[in-house]
Structure formats: C-alpha cells, structure tokens
Amino acid sequence: MSRVSVEVHIEVQTFYAQQMRLLDALDIEGYVQTFTEDGITDHAHRGEKVEGRAAMIAGANAALPRYQGVAVRHWNDHYLIEEAGENTLNVTYCSLVTRTDAEGKVTFEPTFFIEDVLVRVDGRLYTKSRTVHRDGQAKPVARAS
C-alpha cells in the first residue's frame, strides 16, 4: 500500500464531508447512494453486518426514532488514506457522534474506529465496505503504517 497525493486526500475528505452531511440530515436514501450497490456495513462491536443498499436503508430506517428531535453530527478525524490497488483506497479514521436536543444539551455516543474501503467508479468515490469498531473493546484496533 502507498500513500496518496494531496489531491486524493482532499477528494477523500470532501467525499466524507458530503456523506456525513447526508447522514446527519437523516437523508438515508442519499447516504446509502454513497455506497456501492453491494456495499457492506459491519458494526463489528455488535455483530451486525448489512449487505446491499436495500438492507442498509431498512436498517437505518429502523434506527431513525432515536435520532428524531435532535441534531446529529458525525465528527470524523485522524484519517489514514492508502492506495490499495487500482481505483481502491483503504481509509481508517476515528469518529465521534453527538446529539443536540432543542435546549442545546449535547450527548455523546461512544467513540469509534472505522475501516473503509473506497472504490472509484466512473470517476466518483463510493464506499465498498465499512467496518465500525466501538472503542473500549479488549483488543486495540488502531494500526499505523
């Protein structure tokens, strides 16, 4: 694996900014369109693996009630982006999710370590797979290259 250019790094960060804004706006269909048709999300900490856009939409819609009436924000940082082959990037990063209620009270979700595989299709980035690890697990998941 090799490091990426500044241009690719900016492209990836822009991709995530757009993807997370869709998720934070609870635009589930728009968010899921940022995944490949056969995309996978794997919440490893709870053994929940979802494959394909239709299954992602169903799972996300089931979780929507906990986000009603609050402003949701995904705060991602510490990106490590590596070329993994032609039109494929491996990306790892840390994530914090906040929920702000109508009075301005902020609550925090646990922090997470994320492993994504991004692919370029017709010049656009899509998430091929996402594995979510909740911090606090017995085995550390962070890695450095």
UniProtKB/TrEMBL annotation:
Which spans of this chain does the record mark as coiled coil? none
Name the Pfam families on file: SnoaL_4 (PF13577)
Q: Which parts of the sequence belong to the SnoaL-like domain?
A: 9-131
Q: Which SUPFAM superfamilies match?
A: NTF2-like
Listed Gene3D superfamilies: 3.10.450.50
In which domain of life is the source organism classified?
Bacteria
Protein name, please? Nuclear transport factor 2 family protein
